[in-house]
Every structure is written in structure tokens, then in C-alpha cells.
Amino acid sequence: EVQLVQSGAEVKKPGESLTISCQISGYIFTSYWMGWVRQMPGKGLEWMGLIFPGDSDTRYSPSFQGQVTMSVDRSISTAYLHWSSLKASDTAIYYCARLPNQDYFDPWGQGTLVTVSS
Amino acid sequence: DIQMTQSPSTLSASVGDRVTITCRASRSVGSWLAWYQQKPGKTPQVLIYKASTLESGVPSRFSGSGSGTEFTLTISSLQPDDFATYYCQQYYSSWTFGQGTKVEIK
């Protein structure tokens, strides 16, 4: 069974750094693109970017380029999303999701709630 | 960037109703379109991909149609479990989601 398990909820202050994770099982990590999607409170879904774990090739949405960094650790089949300096506007649920053929997102992780507040 | 616009934003319907949601692209995306369902507090789930292909395990009351710039998601007979928010997403050029359509109980 394909599973994506994300790290737990985080509460941070503005200016702090943060890395959240997404560990997969049930498929070959290095064979499929992985995407990240943001959902701000009460809002819709926004594509942030993709990473190919096989070679760490990344594609960022222009809206998120320079704001976050995606990476992977192939040894533990885990993808990461990193912020170097959080803002209050980064408060959201962040989902990781596999792309079966570099197309739609399926399946999704359970989401990580990030709250940034002073 | 390709923009995706869904209509309506909110839809009130009753169990048993036939429901149609429209998704329009700012330029052609061919058939590279998916539909997702998201229930409150839950993870999005893909219903349909490539505009009209039903994901395995999704009830046959869901169907998708369209190509180019106009697409529809139809629920033939709305069930209690279907009250949720639905999103379209193009993957022809980069990836873009529509703003969502909330299906509410009438």
C-alpha cells in the first residue's frame, strides 16, 4: 500500500526556520515526482513545487520560488520542505503528494499544520 | 500561467440531485485535467484524471467530460457522502488548481 506520512503540527514564531517531512512507503521513492501543496486557513489548494527524488531535480511555482526549499533523503525515503525565515502568512496546512506520471497528485499525505504567530 | 476558474463557488443541492460543476481554463490544457474531492478536515482525493478517467474505487455516479478549455464534473445522483469541496487541476503546463466548489446540503 502506498503511504505518505507527514511530520506533526508545528507552532513557530516569525523569523524562525522550519523543516517539515514526508516519509513514503509502498513504492520506489526515486521513481516518482513528489509535490507540495499549500492550503491556507479556509482557502483552496495551491501548488508549491515538485521534486524528483531520483536526482533532486526541482520545479518551483513562481509564487513560492525563493520562499521555500524542497529536498530529499533517499536513504530514508523522505522528502522535506524548508523555510529559512517564517512569516505569519505561512500559516497553513502543507500536503505532500506523489505524482504517478508527473501529472495529477495521488496519493496525498495527511497534511502538516504550520502555525506562525508571535 | 494557466488560470483555472470553477463555477459555481458554492452549490446547494439535495440528496438525489444531479450536480454539475464547471471548470474553465484560461487557455487550452488538452485533456490534462483532474478533479479532487476534499471533505472538511480531510485530505484531497483524486476522483478523475485525464478529464474523464475515473480513479479506481471512485463510485460510478461521478463522471468527467470536456477538453481544451471547458470541463465538467457531474454527480449523477448526489449522496450524503458527496457533500464536500471539489477542485479541478490542470497539468498541461505546470500545475494549477481551481478555486474550489463547495457542495452544500440544501
Compact summary:
The complex is a heterodimer of chains A (118) and B (106). Chain A contains no helices and ten strands.
Description:
The complex is a heterodimer of chains A (118) and B (106). Chain A contains no helices and ten strands. Chain A has strands at 3-6, 10-12, 18-25, 33-39, 45-52, 57-60, 69-73, 78-83, 92-99, 112-116. A six-stranded mixed beta sheet of chain A has the order 2-10-9-4-5-6, with no helix packed on it. Chain A has a four-stranded antiparallel beta sheet with strand order 1-3-8-7, with no helix packed on it. In chain A, a hairpin with a 4-residue loop joins strand 5 (45-52) and strand 6. Chain A is globular and about 40 Å long. The N and C termini of chain A lie far apart (40 Å). Helix content of chain B is 0%, strand content 50%. Chain B has no helices and eleven strands. The model of chain B has no long low-confidence stretch (mean pLDDT 97). Chain A binds chain B through residues 35, 37, 44-47, 50, 59, 61-62, 95, 102-111, and chain B through 1, 32, 34, 36, 38, 43-46, 49-50, 55, 87, 89, 91, 94-100.
